[in-house]
Amino acid sequence: MTDNFQNLELITSRHEISRIETRITWIQTGSSETTSCRLPGTKQVRDLLFVSGRKSELTGKVGEDVTEEQAKIAARDTVILLLSIVKNDIQDLDKIEGIVKVQGFINASEKFDRLPQVLDGASEILIELFGKNGHHARTATGASQLPYAATIQLDMILNLKSQ
Length: 163
Hints:
By secondary structure, the protein is α+β, with helices and mostly antiparallel strands. The protein has two helices and seven strands, in the order ββββαβαββ. It has helices at about 70-90, 115-130; strands spanning about 10, 25-30, 40-45, 50-55, 95-105, 135-145, 150-160. It has a five-stranded mixed sheet, with helices on one face. α1 (about 70-90) packs across α2 (about 115-130). The radius of gyration is 15 Å and the shape is elongated.
């Protein structure tokens, strides 16, 4: 396991479990990863929750150092990291009405053009977790470089249930 995921616990061992959390086999616990300037992980505007971008633990370029399947798994793992940050900020993932948009940046070689298939790793887990409310708009963008040579960087916009 990577450093960011050393503090994992099984969801089933917890007493206060949301409906969404029961569908995730593990989630990062403890403090959320922060940016270099200590910006918050999320920003709420009315019923929308904007989730700041986070990078994958996997490093390297898809099509050179990293396979498409490895990158797809990294996209899935990164969206789970985003959900753990959301959980830390809003306390209960059942407050999420649905997923509005996922934006994915993929560190890819010039010849690799299957960017949407890589981002499917994130989209598929969101649809599995949230059902029809997990369907979302998305953008898959190839990048020649990402912070710290990460393979994937994701951010997303969520719709929260009205209070």
